[in-house]
Automatic annotation (TrEMBL):
InterPro entries: NUDIX_hydrolase-like_dom_sf, NUDIX_hydrolase_dom, UDP-X_N
Nudix hydrolase domain boundaries: 66-194
PROSITE patterns (alphabetical): NUDIX (PS51462)
Keywords: Hydrolase
Cited Pfam families: NUDIX, Nudix_N
Transmembrane parts of this sequence: none
Similarity comment: Belongs to the Nudix hydrolase family.
CDD domains given in the database record: NUDIX_CDP-Chase_like
GO molecular function: hydrolase activity
Protein name per the record: NUDIX hydrolase
Domain of life: Bacteria
Annotated source species: Paenibacillus alba
Length: 207
């Protein structure tokens, strides 16, 4: 979803963060700080969110700003896709979450699947790397790359009790998908994951 003011605010924030991290001239640093303040005020105004909360979530990092990475595990069993029910919105998503420092993408997929669903899995191959802004997700203050990794079941069993982030686990066929957590994955994306996971060609979907 393309929202011009959101793209502008994120670009201004990225420029100001890089300038504050690498600038040396005191006058320039003041200008970069002013740019950061403008980006925070834009985000606060258009989202009706308090300035301090926007600052914590949107403008508190240091160094050169880069996209965040969201990793999702794609697991098929009997042509049904493993999904978990998100506590945050009561809708369903592929197991996954933000990439962790010190772990490879495959290791994150394995960890998140076990923590959220209870299953042990083995990574097989990368299915897709998607730019969140090019898909039908709700607007986001972060620029996010989404990685989808095909995994095979290797053991474990579905959690019987709700976890910290999820409240349900299930396998769903392509024509019986439950309400989806579109913040995390869209219907179009899951339909493509069915296609890619079943394919014999090691195609990787980009952007």
């Amino acid at each position: 979803m393309n929202i011009p003011w959101l793209d502008w605010a994120k670009e201004i924030q990225a420029i100001s963060q890089a300038g504050l991290s690498y600038g040396e001239n005191g006058y320039d640093l003041e200008r970069y700080e002013a740019l950061r303040k403008i980006s925070v005020e834009m985000m606060s105004y258009f989202t009706d969110t308090p300035i301090d909360k926007v600052t914590d979530l949107f403008a508190s990092e240091q160094g050169y700003q880069t996209p965040k990475v969201d990793i999702r595990a794609v697991i098929l069993q009997d042509n049904k896709l493993l999904l978990v029910k998100e506590r945050a919105d009561g809708a369903w998503a592929l197991p996954g979450g933000w990439a962790d420092i010190g772990l490879t993408p495959s290791e994150v997929a394995v960890k998140e699947t076990y923590e959220e669903a209870g299953y042990e899995v083995k990574p097989v191959r990368l299915l897709a790397v998607l730019d969140k802004k090019k898909h039908a997700h709700p607007p986001s203050a972060n620029h996010v790359y989404k990685m989808f990794i095909l995994c095979e079941l290797a053991g474990g069993k579905a959690h019987e009790e709700a976890g910290l982030e999820t409240t349900g686990v299930g396998f769903f066929g392509e024509n019986e998908l439950p309400p989806l957590s579109v913040e995390r994955n869209t219907l179009e994306q899951l339909q493509r994951m069915f296609e890619l996971a079943r394919g014999t060609v090691s195609e990787v979907l980009l952007d």
